[in-house]
Specification:
Length: 247
């Protein structure tokens, strides 16, 4: 995954949906009743889209900003800069050891959880890193994502190799949720080739396990269908909000 995400500069050029999702998540976090100086952990900061949006919302306190990719972490650091109470660390949000800065009042993440192998186990681990009354709030992708691309394959009797995502309903069963919100973002592309370039740039271009690549002719037919349908791609974005008991 680090190799897929090492092109930090290229990521920013194609991350229009990711930027909108980060801003909306930051607005929701900004509306929470957090402590005056919360201890905050950001998982999967990427190039800093959410970090920057949270700063704009006035979320202060002691921050640990983390990502699995050193290249992404440095891009985030360059975007938001150093500040008192703001640390940057390479951290595996799914499997990493509990940070010494724990417990946290807020753990937040934007569009990282979809890459976790066992989301429910990750949620359980992160909930254990929270202080009493602390919150875990994150966005992830659900099964409606890239529906148009899958439909173009289906019309040709083929199966798309894009990653599979759980349904919003299944995401809601991972852990008792205080809130679950479903939003849909539609991104218009000039062509199927542009869509595929964008997928690669944001790290979603790796085919699902055991997927057999299409022949050049089959891929051309799928791309033509996708373009005739408008070359748009839907992202089904789910915001999951869990809260640890206060005592």
């Amino acid at each position: 995954m680090d190799a897929a995400f090492s092109g930090a500069h290229e990521y920013d050029r194609h991350a229009r949906v990711q930027a909108r999702v980060a801003r909306r998540l930051a607005e929701r976090v900004g509306a929470l009743d957090l402590p005056d100086a919360p201890r905050v952990l950001e998982i999967g900061c990427g190039t800093g889209l959410l970090t920057e949006a949270l700063i704009a919302q006035g979320v202060g306190g002691e921050w640990l900003v983390s990502d699995l990719s050193p290249a992404m972490l440095e891009r985030c650091r360059a975007r938001v800069g150093e500040a008192p109470g703001r640390e940057f660390a390479v951290l595996d949000g799914e499997h990493g050891a509990r940070p010494q800065q724990a417990p946290f009042d807020l753990i937040v993440s934007s569009l990282t959880f979809q890459w976790f192998g066992d989301k429910a186990a990750a949620v359980a681990r992160l909930m254990d890193w929270l202080a009493p009354g602390g919150r875990l709030i994150f966005t992830t992708l659900a099964s409606g994502t890239f529906a148009e691309w899958r439909a173009a394959h289906s019309a040709e009797g083929l199966v798309a190799g894009t990653p599979g995502f759980p349904s919003a309903a299944d995401l809601g069963t991972m852990h008792p949720m205080q809130e679950i919100i479903v939003d849909r973002e539609v991104e218009e592309h000039g062509s199927a080739r542009e869509f595929l370039r964008a997928l690669k740039a944001i790290g979603a271009g790796t085919a699902a396990a055991r997927h057999r690549p299409l022949s050049p002719g089959a891929l051309r037919r799928v791309m033509a269908r996708f373009e005739r349908a408008g070359a748009s791609a839907t992202y089904e974005v789910v915001t999951c909000h869990c809260r640890k008991a206060a005592s």
